[in-house]
Amino acid sequence: MPAAQLIATGDELTVVTPRGERVESAAAHAELAARLGFDPPLASLRYWVLGVPDPAQPATESVDPAQQRLSELTQSGWRVQYQSYASAGSEVLPARLTLQRDTVRVRLLVDGWQI
Question: Which fold has domain 41-115?
Fold first, then answer.
């Protein structure tokens, strides 16, 4: 999908296309899944990107003993690996992570954080 804006609030999803069209709710989920080829775990992703497990689901966590940060997380059938972290004000947040489930692999790179 070319650059699109995703707005997730709770279970609600809005996709704003590059042409400014808005697709909402179930149609937005279906559109996103069709374009990506898989149903992204948006509810959990908001937590994973911050380097924490989704509190609504059981998880298995591995912590880097030297840095005391999450290095890997398994939750809801997804394996999330944290390759690097970056300073964001007084916080240290993930900068590069990989999500994998079955044959799907997604790499996320955070250019910068605004806190």
Answer: outer membrane lipoprotein receptor (LolB), chain A (2.50.20)
CB-based contact 107:79 (threshold 8 Å): no
CA–CA distance, 90 with 76 (Å, rounded to integer): 30
pLDDT tens readout for residues 80-105: 999 999 999 999 999 999 999 999 99
Q: Which DSSP symbol is given to 47?
A: H
The dihedrals phi and psi of 20, each to the nearest 5 degrees, come to 85, 5
Instruction: Break the chain into its structural domains and give their ranges.
Output: 1-40, 41-115
Say if residues 99 and 48 touch (Cβ distance below 8 Å).
Answer: yes
**CB of 60 within 8 A of CB of 80?**
no
Q: How far apart are the first and last CA of the chain?
A: 27
Check: pTM over 0.90? Answer yes or no. Answer: no
- Non-local CB neighbours of 57 within 8 Å, separated by 6+ positions: 44, 75, 76
